Amino acid sequence: MACVLHRYVREGWINREQALSVRHTFLESVDEGTWTLIPVSEGILRAVNALIPELPGGVFLRAGDAIHLVTASQAGFPEVWTNDRHLLRAAQHLGLAGRSV
Hints:
With 101 residues, the protein is mainly alpha-helical. The protein has two domains: 31 residues, no CATH class; 59 residues, no CATH class. The protein has five helices and two strands. A two-stranded parallel ribbon has the order 1-2. The radius of gyration is 15 Å and the shape is globular. The model has no long low-confidence stretch (mean pLDDT 94).
């Protein structure tokens, strides 16, 4: 979340104060149980390592997105929500439904 907000500030979508406000709201939501944060384990990183060579060559997947998808898959989530078109397309390769925000 911090990196997304930093990127939005850098690209001029929001200002620093707005980013800090969203960060605060997000952390409150985590504390309230709205979001489930799952630690990145060695097992998840190994699963990412095994996944990448199996993907078709045309699948564009960033490291963080690969970790996100593998974590969701291993946690048993049936879907992932994002506004990232690359992550949405890659989700299907892990048996996940990609839902657009």
